[in-house]
Design goal:
Distance between the termini: 53 Å
Radius of gyration: 24 Å
Structural class: mainly alpha
Shape: globular
Oligomer: single chain
Helix content: over 70%
Number of helices: 24
Largest sheet: none
Length: 551
């Protein structure tokens, strides 16, 4: 007989175990990269197996945390259309979401088991079989499906989830037997259409991308199911991606050690006396914080916890306080070291150093315009703050100088070739950790919490990157970017029209998609067709991407 309390206990234990395993993978990854840097810098020793093992740990982290990141990814979904439907159609739409999610997880588990049997060889650096990184796929897919069904059941949707399970079982059985006949469309258009339809119904972004890849693979021999799983894992197996959890953990350590308050104090001392002072502080501190952590999500969380309550206490309207904090949170996407730029670099093979340098001026301009907007809005709303004691600029600058210096070292080190983005992230972790230890602000419990939260954040970002690999492969292999290149104006006289059309497309995508997901979907389409210089250069980029994906 079903015991709800026992089921709840099992689910909680499973989620706690997943969080702990993710934290262990992240801690091991950080220790490996940091020890490699110390060994090479002080002893001239470098082990070839360390980067390979670190990459394998990152792949494992992403796959292991899938059951929880899938739950978090549900917040990165577009449910407006579903909410606008009548109640009967809402029920049907939610059942479709259940069927799509469970079918995708089923395919992921089945094809993950198949790829283990198909992959051969031994990793020369680690001496382990090449199929080992694929082992967590099937296990994680099964755990994710179990937790998904449990959450639906605990919310009272017994009939709906039971019908969904039955439909998925029939679908998978027919799929395995090869009895499903799919119309022969171009796979590129099919993957875009199925992705857009799933996203519109409220399917989480990562599940929608993976579902579209599996379905598009069914209508062509271009990429069968096991190859989809292989592309997901191989899409994560890149050294540059290790910089993402490192910079995320740097931001977590700064928040944990109270170091971010030094940046806020510096911003307060510089612009706190302006009209709309605390909102001005929110903008400037977002720019300063983004120059170290690179995470817009971390900045939004920090601003919501520290600055929004203070703004409301000082008489700011709640919508204005939240709006300016949300707007300021985009600055870490532009100011280096930006995690969004790291995702862009991984998706496009553009130099990370060039992207970082290219983001400095636009980031400063955005900051100035946001501060000007705050000034005029505060004047329009007649916001008058009470005079409060503020830190002295010289003292605040002195306290924040170590963090500002770290931001300069990160960007300069990458741009000058002294360190890779991953090594710069490891140095940032070491630097901030030592500062926190000197201040004696870390405890074992707080450190474990920071590792768990960072592992889940990194897992969610990594999941998007991984599922984007087969999605992008299908688009490029079906020559969708070439078709787009024919549509967009490619002559020098009309290049601005093409650029405007691209920006409108990115604006629409940004309304319904997370930044990372939008980058991963649009870059394979827009980069080769971007009106940047000679059309021959765009065709060269196109051929370069084709060669990469054939490899």
């Amino acid at each position: 007989m079903f015991n709800p309390q026992y089921a709840k206990k099992l689910a909680n234990n499973l989620e706690n175990s997943i969080e702990v395993i993710g934290a262990i993978c992240l801690a091991a990854l950080i220790l490996l990269i940091c020890s490699q840097i110390i060994a090479r810098g002080f002893f001239g020793f470098s082990a070839a197996w360390v980067p390979e093992l670190a990459q394998w740990l990152f792949v494992t982290l992403v796959l292991v945390t899938l059951p929880i990141t899938q739950k978090r990814d549900s917040y990165l979904s577009f449910s407006n259309l579903q909410d606008a439907l009548p109640s009967v159609l809402q029920y049907l739409a939610r059942m479709i979401v259940d069927v799509v999610t469970l079918y995708t997880l089923g395919r992921l588990g089945i094809n993950g088991g198949q790829i283990i049997a198909l992959v051969g060889g031994v990793n020369p650096a680690l001496g382990i079989p090449e199929w080992v990184p694929f082992v967590p796929v099937a296990i994680s897919a099964a755990c994710t499906a179990i937790l998904y069904i449990y959450r639906a059941a605990t919310q009272g949707h017994y009939v709906r989830i039971s019908l969904s399970i039955l439909l998925v079982a029939i679908w998978l059985a027919l799929d395995i037997l090869g009895l499903i006949l799919v119309p022969q469309f171009r796979p590129g258009f099919f993957v875009l259409g199925s992705f857009a339809a799933a996203l519109a119904l409220g399917v989480p972004v990562s599940i929608a991308m993976l579902f579209a890849s599996f379905i598009a693979g069914d209508i062509t021999a271009l990429i069968p199911g096991p190859a989809v799983v292989q592309n997901v894992v191989r899409g994560l197996d890149r050294f540059i991606l290790l910089a993402i959890p490192l910079f995320l953990f740097t931001g977590a350590l700064m928040n944990l050690g109270g170091l971010t308050t030094r940046l806020i104090d510096l911003a307060d001392s510089l612009v706190g006396h302006f009209r709309g002072g605390l909102a001005q502080v929110s903008v400037l501190s977002a720019m300063l914080y983004g120059g170290i952590s690179g995470s817009s999500n971390a900045e939004a969380s920090l601003g919501a916890k520290l600055l929004v309550p203070q703004m409301m206490k000082r008489g700011y309207p709640a919508p204005f306080a939240c709006a300016i904090t949300s707007a300021a949170a985009i600055l870490p996407n532009v100011i280096p070291p930006s995690i969004a730029m790291l995702i862009l670099a991984a998706a496009s093979d553009i130099s990370v150093g060039a992207l970082f340098i290219g983001g400095i001026i636009p980031g400063i301009i955005l900051t100035i315009f946001l501060m000007a907007t705050v000034y005029f809005q505060a004047s329009r709303l007649s916001i008058e703050e009470a005079t409060v004691p503020r830190p002295l600029p010289g003292r605040a600058l002195w306290r924040a100088l170590p963090l500002i210096g770290l931001a300069i070292i990160i960007v300069g080190g990458i741009r000058l070739g002294w360190a890779t983005p991953t090594e710069a992230g490891a140095l940032a972790v070491l630097y901030v950790f030592i500062l926190g230890m000197m201040m004696r602000v870390y405890s074992r419990e707080s450190m474990l919490t920071a590792l768990k939260e960072t592992a889940l954040d990194a897992g969610l970002i990594g999941l998007l990157i991984g599922v984007a690999a087969p999605f992008s492969f299908i688009l490029i292999a079906d020559q969708i970017p070439q078709d787009l290149l024919q549509i967009l104006p490619n002559d020098n006289d009309n290049r601005w029209i093409g650029l405007l059309m691209m920006n409108l497309l990115m604006l629409v995508a940004g309304l319904v998609m997370d930044t990372g997901a939008a980058i991963l979907v649009l870059v394979p389409l827009l980069l080769p067709a971007a009106p940047a210089g000679d059309p021959r250069h765009r065709r060269h980029l196109l051929r370069q991407r084709d060669r990469r994906f054939r490899a």
